[in-house]
Design brief:
binds coenzyme A; Alpha-D-Glucose-1,6-Bisphosphate, Chain A, domain 4; Thiol Ester Dehydrase, Chain A; binds adenosine-5'-diphosphate
Length: about 600
C-alpha cells in the first residue's frame, strides 16, 4: 500500500529506507536545489525586492517609549507600495493589509529593517509579502517583529483595468509564496462574507469572561471621535491618501479608546485585516471613530471606522475603512494585567460585544492550528464551523508548500511511475507521479471523491461523507483494509479540500489532512489513524496529457512503521498507481462526473 493518506501506512514500503538513502544521494548528485543565486555565484535578489532601514528616533516613539505602531505601519505601507510599483511600472494603491501579529516592541536607537517583495501578480492586483525585523546596533542581534501581506492594485492612466505581467518565481521560498498567495487571495476576498456568515451562524458565549469585577466600565466612556484633514504630505503624487497614513490615524484613535478603558498605556498586539474600500484625496476630511467593543481577561478589542467627506458635502460621508485591534496592558515584568470588565451599550454595542467574542475565538483557533507541532501525536486539529475557511486554507497551503520544495530526489522508476523522496529535519515525504492520457479536470473530479478511492486503492475499504462543508471541502470517515498492531481495522477522519487552478499553469490540487470531530470520536472497534499532509497535484501538460502526482508527508515518529511494517513490496507503489491510472482511463469520458461537479 502506498497511496493511503496515512504516513505510517503510506510509506510502509519495505525498501523505503533504502530508497530514502538513495533519494538523498540523488539530490546531492543532481544538485536539485536550483537556486539562481548559487549558480551565478552572486547573491540572488528578487527583482521586486525593496528594503527600508530606519533608525528609531524619539520623534517616532509613543507614550510608552516604544516605536509607535502607526509609524511602523507607514513605513511598511511605503516599502510595500514601492515594491508593487517596481513590478507594475505604474502607481499602485493599497487595497488591503492582512492580519498582523506583533511579536516585539522596538525601542529608541534600534534599527527597523523592512523587506518587501511581490509574491504574485493576479490581474490588476498583487500580493506583497513584508518582513519586519529590528536590529540592536550595539550587539548586532536581530529579532522578527512581524510578517504582513498587503494587496496593491495598479492604476494606469488608461481607463481599462490593467493586466499585470506575471511573476516567475525562482527560489523555493518564492515558489511557495507564489503558490500559497492564490490561497490567501481566496481567503481575503471571501473575508467579509466569511465573517458575516460566522457571526450569524456561530453560537458565541455571551456571559462575561472573568475580569476585574470591581471595576465595570461602560464602553461609552471609551468612545473616540477625531477628524483629520488630508494635506499634500499625507498623499501620493496623484493626491490619493497613503494607506499607511490612514492606518496610523486609525491606530492613534484606537489607542486612545483602549487607554480610556484601562487608564494606562496599552500595547497593540494584533490588527485584523485593513480593507481600503474606497479612495480619499487631498482636501478630504477623514472622520475616525473608535470604541472598545469588548474586554476579556487580559486583552481588549477596539474597533475603528473611517469615513471621508468633502467640506461642502458632509452629509455624503463615504465609509472607507474599518479595522479591529487587540490591545493588552503590560506590567513592569512585561506580563499582561487583568483588565476591567466592560458594560456594552444596548443595540449596536451588544452586537459588537458578541462579535468581538466571535473574532477572539477565531483568532485563538487559528493560533492553535499554527502552533501545532506537526511532529507530535495527535496530528489532527479540531474541525470547527467557525474556522472552516482557515482550516481549508491551512490544508491546501501545507500541500502546496510540500509541492514547491526543490530538494526532491528521484528514488526509483518502474513502468514510467516515478517515486521521489524528500528528507527534511523533522519530516520525510514522498511523491509518486506519472503522466497519463486524460483531461486534468476530469482526473481532478475523480480523485477528489474519496468515496471512489476503494476502486483503485486496495487499502481503502470505504469512505463516507460526514459533512459536505462547502463546494470544495468535504469531511470523510474512511475505513481502511489495514489491520493495526492492535489487530483492529484503522479508521480516519479526513478533511479533503480541493482547488481548481487560479491561473494558467497552476495545477489542480486536492489536499487531505486529519481533523477531529466531536461527532466522530475514536471508536473502540477501530484504531484511529492520522495523516498530516497528503494529496494530489494535477497538471495539464498538453491537450491530451496530464501529470498526476501524489504527495505524502510522514514524521519521524512513524518511520519505525515504515521500515518494519511491510517487507519486500518494492513495486507496490507502481502497482497502486497503475490501478489509479486504469481507474482514470475507465472514467475519462464519464460526463456525469462533470455534471455532478458543476
Ligand atoms: N483585498 C484584496 N484585493 C482586493 C480586495 C480586497 N479586499 N477587494 C478587491 N480587490 C482586488 C480584486 O481582487 C481585483 O484584483 P484583480 O484585478 O487582480 O483580480 C482588484 O482589487 C480590482 O477589483 P475590482 O472589483 O475591479 O475593483 P473594486 O471596485 O473592488 O476596487 C480598489 C478595488 C482597491 C481599487 C478600490 O476599493 C479602491 O480604490 N480602494 C481604495 C484604495 C486606496 O485608496 N488605498 C489607500 C490609499 S493608497
Ligand atoms: P460594525 O459596527 O459592524 O462593527 P463598522 O464598520 O460600522 O462595523 O465599525 C467598525 C468598528 O468601529 C465598530 O465595531 C466600532 O468599534 C467602531 N465604531 C463604529 N461606529 C462608531 C462610532 N459612532 N463611535 C465609535 N466607534 C465606532
Amino acid at each position: 500500500m502506498l497511496l493511503c493518506d496515512r504516513p505510517e501506512l503510506s510509506l510502509a514500503s519495505a525498501n523505503a529506507k533504502l530508497l530514502l538513502a538513495e533519494g538523498l544521494a540523488s539530490v546531492l548528485a543532481t544538485g536539485a536545489l536550483a537556486d539562481p543565486a548559487m549558480e551565478s555565484g552572486e547573491r540572488y535578489r528578487n527583482p521586486t525586492e525593496v528594503q527600508m532601514s530606519q533608525l528609531v528616533l524619539p520623534c517616532h516613539m509613543n507614550h510608552r517609549g516604544e516605536l509607535s505602531i502607526g509609524q511602523l505601519l507607514k513605513w511598511i505601507d511605503t516599502t510595500a507600495c514601492l515594491s508593487a510599483e517596481r513590478h507594475a511600472g505604474c502607481p499602485c494603491v493599497t487595497a488591503s493589509v492582512d492580519d498582523i501579529y506583533f511579536e516585539h516592541t522596538i525601542s529608541v536607537g534600534q534599527v527597523v529593517n523592512i523587506k518587501a517583495k511581490v509574491n504574485r501578480a493576479f490581474n490588476s492586483s498583487m500580493e506583497v509579502g513584508i518582513q519586519v525585523s529590528y536590529e540592536d546596533l550595539c550587539s548586532g542581534k536581530q529579532w522578527n517583529v512581524c510578517k504582513a501581506y498587503a494587496t496593491f492594485v495598479a492604476h494606469s492612466k488608461a481607463t481599462a483595468k490593467m493586466k499585470l505581467k506575471p511573476l516567475a518565481p525562482q527560489t523555493e521560498e518564492e515558489k511557495t509564496e507564489y503558490s500559497i498567495a492564490a490561497e490567501r487571495r481566496r481567503m481575503r476576498l471571501a473575508h467579509t462574507d466569511t465573517i458575516k456568515d460566522l457571526l450569524t451562524s456561530c453560537t458565541v458565549r455571551t456571559e462575561r469572561e472573568s475580569g476585574d469585577c470591581n471595576t465595570v466600565v461602560p464602553v461609552e466612556q471609551t468612545r473616540v471621535e477625531s477628524v483629520e484633514l488630508v494635506l499634500p504630505p499625507h498623499a501620493n503624487h496623484q493626491g490619493n491618501t497613503f494607506g499607511g497614513q490612514i492606518m496610523a490615524w486609525m491606530e492613534n484613535v484606537a489607542t486612545i479608546a483602549a487607554s480610556r478603558l484601562c487608564r494606562a498605556h496599552p500595547t497593540l498586539k494584533t490588527i485584523e485585516m485593513f480593507h481600503f474600500r474606497g479612495p480619499s484625496q487631498v482636501g478630504d476630511r477623514l472622520l475616525l471613530k473608535a470604541i472598545v467593543n469588548n474586554a476579556f481577561k487580559n486583552s481588549m478589542e477596539v474597533g475603528v471606522c473611517v469615513e471621508a467627506y468633502r467640506q461642502e458635502m458632509e452629509v455624503n460621508r463615504r465609509h472607507i475603512n474599518s479595522a479591529f485591534m487587540t490591545f493588552v496592558v503590560l506590567d513592569q515584568e512585561g506580563q499582561p494585567i487583568i483588565l476591567p470588565m466592560v458594560k456594552p451599550d444596548t443595540g449596536d454595542g451588544e452586537r459588537r460585544y458578541r462579535e468581538a467574542s466571535a473574532r477572539k475565538k477565531i483568532r485563538l483557533d487559528r493560533k492553535y492550528i499554527i502552533s501545532c507541532d506537526q511532529t507530535k501525536v495527535p496530528l489532527s486539529v479540531p474541525w470547527d464551523q467557525s474556522n472552516k475557511v482557515y482550516l481549508s486554507y491551512n490544508n491546501v497551503s501545507a500541500l502546496k508548500t510540500l509541492v514547491a520544495k526543490t530538494n526532491w530526489g528521484l528514488a526509483t522508476e518502474i513502468d514510467k511511475v516515478r517515486m521521489y523522496t524528500l528528507e527534511e529535519d523533522k519530516s520525510l515525504s514522498f511523491r509518486i507521479e506519472r503522466t497519463t492520457n486524460i483531461d486534468a479536470k476530469q482526473a481532478f473530479f475523480l480523485l477528489s471523491d474519496l468515496r471512489r478511492r476503494h476502486e483503485w486503492d486496495s487499502f481503502y475499504a470505504s469512505a463516507e461523507i460526514v459533512q459536505q462543508v462547502d463546494e470544495d471541502d468535504v469531511i470523510y470517515h474512511v475505513l481502511s483494509q489495514v489491520i493495526s498492531q492492535e489487530n483492529k481495522s484503522q479508521d480516519f477522519i479526513i478533511l479533503a479540500s480541493r482547488r481548481k487552478p487560479c491561473d494558467e499553469g497552476d495545477p489542480y490540487v486536492v489536499a487531505f489532512r486529519s481533523v477531529t470531530l466531536p461527532t466522530h470520536p475514536p471508536n473502540p472497534a477501530y484504531t484511529r489513524g492520522e495523516t498530516i499532509c497528503s494529496g494530489f497535484c494535477i497538471w495539464q501538460e498538453t491537450a491530451e496529457l496530464t501529470k498526476v502526482a501524489y504527495y505524502n508527508q510522514a514524521t519521524p515518529g512513524y518511520l519505525r512503521y515504515i521500515t518494519t511494517n511491510i517487507a519486500g513490496l518494492s513495486s507496490d507503489f507502481s502497482l497502486t498507481f497503475k490501478a489509479c491510472e486504469r481507474f482514470l482511463q475507465k472514467n475519462k469520458d464519464d460526463i456525469a462526473i462533470r455534471f455532478q461537479n458543476l
